Amino acid sequence: MTLKDKSVLLFDLDGTLVDSVPDLALAVNQTLQQLERDTFDEATIRNWVGNGALCLISRALSASKNIDNTLPEALVTKALSLFLSFYQDCVCVDSALYSGVKETLTALKERGYRLAIITNKPETFIEPILQGLALTNLFELQLGGDSLPERKPHPLPLFTACQQLKVSTEQCVMIGDSKNDILAAKAANIDSIGLSYGYNYDEDLAVHQPNYLFDNFNELLTVLDGVGELA
């Protein structure tokens, strides 16, 4: 079985294409050190990633996945500014592509698909990561978590991508590793493919019922045959 009449693939970034936790963890801990607060191991921080920079640093300040709503706003604002500055300096040092990502993206491009990035990561960090991991020139569009008034799981980024690429929702597939991706796709009435290996807080992504759920990125090729003359 394949996804028919699709021409545009909307990809999440962190946890889907790239394991960015090593660099995120470094920047988080540098921030906490600057604020004279306890630091955390990479495995702990890994479980806080996936909802954007503000949520990540708020969890770090809370020392928990559950954000402390009593955190002073001034502290959160200062911490976020520090984090973004530190992360800018290490955005693609130890981050790495997941297995099969570059080869599969290249194959999909050759099959005629148009590729786009829709991530909750701040927009300014997208291009440095793509450049650092040699993924430039593959994506027509890049939308970050601060590109629009709303971010995933809100459908606005997906609708905006459709508008900017001049395609219908029926022509698109959302591909990601977390419930934010699947919920955004459902809200936009877009088919979705879930990937089990990313940042989903140990929750079974199958609960959110993506159209397909794969353990390996290259399995995308089994349901995406090609478009146009390549189909």
Fold and architecture overview:
This protein has two domains: 8-19 and 96-230, HAD superfamily/HAD-like (Rossmann fold); 21-89, DNA polymerase, domain 1 (Orthogonal Bundle), CATH 1.10.150. It has eight helices and eight strands; from the N terminus they run ββααααβαβαβαβαββ. It has helices spanning 21-34, 42-46, 53-62, 73-89, 101-110, 126-132, 156-165, 179-187; strands at 8-11, 18-19, 96-97, 114-118, 139-143, 172-176, 191-195, 212-214. The strands form two sheets. A six-stranded parallel sheet has the order 5-4-1-6-7-8, sandwiched between helices. Helix 1 packs across helix 4 (73-89) and helix 3 packs across helix 4 (73-89). The longest helix is centred in the middle third of the chain and has 17 residues, at 73-89. It is globular, with a radius of gyration of 17 Å. It catalyses: 2-phosphoglycolate + H2O = glycolate + phosphate. Keywords: Carbohydrate metabolism, Hydrolase, Magnesium, Metal-binding.
> Uncertain regions: pLDDT < 50 for 5+ in a row?
none
The SSE string, one letter per element, is EEHHHHEHEHEHEHEE
Report the mean per-residue pLDDT as an integer.
94
Radius of gyration: 17 Å
Name given to the CATH architecture of the largest domain: 3-Layer(aba) Sandwich
Structural class: alpha/beta
Strand content: 5-15%
How many strands appear in the DSSP assignment?
A: 8
CATH superfamily of the largest domain: HAD superfamily/HAD-like
- The CATH top-level class label of the largest domain: Alpha Beta
Could you tell me how far the N terminus lies from the C terminus, measured between alpha carbons in angstroms?
Answer: 14 Å
Bulk shape: globular
Family: Belongs to the HAD-like hydrolase superfamily. CbbY/CbbZ/Gph/YieH family.
InterPro entries: HAD-like_hydrolase_sf, HAD-SF_hydro_IA, HAD_2, PGPase_prok
Catalytic activity: 2-phosphoglycolate + H2O = glycolate + phosphate
Cofactor: Mg(2+)
